[in-house]
Amino acid sequence: MTRANGIVLLPTLPVEAGYQFWKTKRWDSRWTVSYTSFDWPWRGIRGAIGIMIGWKPGDAEIVGAQEFIFAMIGLICAMASWIRLRPTYAMYITVSWLIFASTTFMESMPRYTLTKFPIFVLFGLLGENRFWRVAITVWSLLFLALFTSLFTRGGWAF
């Protein structure tokens, strides 16, 4: 529903649910209920930490650690934006972070972090210092390599 043609889903999804009901003669609650819902941000963050601790290493790294890392990047940048950027940018990133982090299960935080454009402004300001410019570049290249390798192997890469 984030693009103009997403409005097509409004009539399409109920038609699919009706079709499935007609075929199976039973109602399946999974058609209408999502496994995630809005909650306090710390609940989703706590869940990501729990995944890092309790899941097998490969899944814990992607599902837990990356969600947590990018949630923290968004939070830190939201706080820094109130100091270094225009109030409108600060409000945008703060509200965006709250919307994405305020769920029972954080999902796709690396992808959602890319939509928070004030982060790029902050990184640009930080990049005026040579050390931080190199650190941001190396960090970005490492994450690009990680997610590209996961994607090419058919794994979950956000």
List the total number of helices.
Answer: 7
Distance between the terminal alpha carbons, to the nearest Å? Answer: 18 Å
Question: What is the number of strand segments?
Answer: 0
> What is the succession of H and E elements?
HHHHHHH
The major β-sheet equals: none
Strand content: under 5%
Total domain count: 1
Shape: globular
**Percentage of residues assigned to helices:** 55-70%
What ranges have pLDDT less than 50 throughout 5 or more consecutive residues? none
Rounded to an integer, what's the Rg over CA atoms? 19 Å
What structural class do the secondary elements suggest? mainly alpha
Mean pLDDT: 83
Annotate the secondary structure layout.
Blueprint: H1 9-24, H2 41-54, H3 57-84, H4 87-101, H5 109-113, H6 118-126, H7 130-152
Overview of this structure, please?
It is a single chain. The protein has helices at residues 9-24, 41-54, 57-84, 87-101, 109-113, 118-126, 130-152. By secondary structure, it is an all-alpha fold. The protein has one domain (41-152). Helix 2 (41-54) runs antiparallel to helix 3 (57-84) and helix 3 runs antiparallel to helix 4. The radius of gyration is 19 Å and the shape is globular.
